């Protein structure tokens, strides 16, 4: 073809994903994020040793982790483990369900209980074993395979570039890279330069992760890393609408203020969904933390959160939230008051360029 006839493929739009979070990424919360425009998500961690050895009928715990709602447009099952045979068997079982769009291998979780058993980011210390795990999963499924990892165990062991190149060679669909080492946990600067270098060195999509606190952060992170998209974790806990905010900013619009009626409505929806796949008392107790992230800044929120500690039923939760919203509506006081907000607990974005 000459230059005039050459067909140029349009650039793929960046994706903004809900990053997996242990104990948080349940189907009920993911569904809320998809309602607000998340482009994809991952289940909570599925322990390969337990699933690989499970009897024919899966336990209630596994059934809960494997719940998927109709609005979850792109959902990967997240496998964690360090025994290649068990990872392969678990991948086969997950594939047989025909419920997920991909399998995601977790090599990023820094939690002590996870790395203590050689899983998660502990695999970054042993790249040879990590590669065998990747091979085992890839050979056991016809689903796309993804990888989530950190830069390395510590600054002396930056193994992500090697592992990501191997993932590409194995035909993995994509990689999500957290721009910190395991030693950093969730503090310290995110190494933007390292993410950019990896993204530029491979042909598979690399999604940047780490340090985003708001929609504007996500767009800056996307620009500075040159990644195919951004995976957002803890910021979404306090702002599940962050995905909608991002899309509005990209269209040149100003995101709206999220008022009390919207906040209460999404909490009520999440509570109802959670009660559909968890014991009601457990689900409502779990809603205390989500309520504690979305209600602060509203007048009277402290008292509502205190009373919520005594609520254990969905009906009780609905009644408490309904009375709270009625009071705010009656006094026309539905805005968030900045002076009532607690001190920011999420890390702020601090970038390193090399």
List descriptors:
2 domains; disordered N terminus; TIM Barrel; 15 helices; alpha/beta; globular
Would you kindly provide a written description of the structure presented here, covering whatever features stand out?
- The protein is an alpha/beta fold and 354 residues long.
- It folds into two domains: 15-250, TIM Barrel; 260-338.
- It is built from 15 helices and ten strands.
- An eight-stranded parallel β-sheet has the order 1-9-8-6-5-4-3-2. A two-stranded parallel ribbon has the order 7-10.
- Strand 5, helix 7 (160-170) and strand 6 form a beta-alpha-beta unit.
- Helix 6 (127-140) packs parallel to helix 7, helix 12 runs antiparallel to helix 15 and helix 14 (301-308) packs antiparallel against helix 15.
- It is globular.
Q: Helices and strands in order, then pairings?
A:
Blueprint: E1 15-18, H1 27-35, E2 41-47, H2 48-53, H3 60-65, E3 75-80, H4 84-97, E4 102-107, H5 112-115, H6 127-140, E5 145-150, H7 160-170, E6 174-178, E7 190-191, H8 192-201, E8 206-209, H9 215-225, E9 229-232, H10 234-238, H11 242-250, H12 260-277, H13 280-294, H14 301-308, H15 314-330, E10 351-352
Q: How many structural domains?
A: 2
Uncertain residue segments: 1-10
The shape is globular
Order of helices and strands: EHEHHEHEHHEHEEHEHEHHHHHHE
Overall number of strands = 10
CATH top level class name of the largest domain: Alpha Beta
Termini separation: 40 Å
Regarding quaternary structure, how should these chains be classified? single chain
Structural class: alpha/beta
How is the CATH topology of the largest domain named?
Answer: TIM Barrel
Q: Approximately what portion of the residues adopt beta-strand conformation? A: 5-15%
Strand order of the largest sheet: 1-9-8-6-5-4-3-2
CATH architecture of the largest domain, by name, is: Alpha-Beta Barrel
- Portion in helices: 40-55%
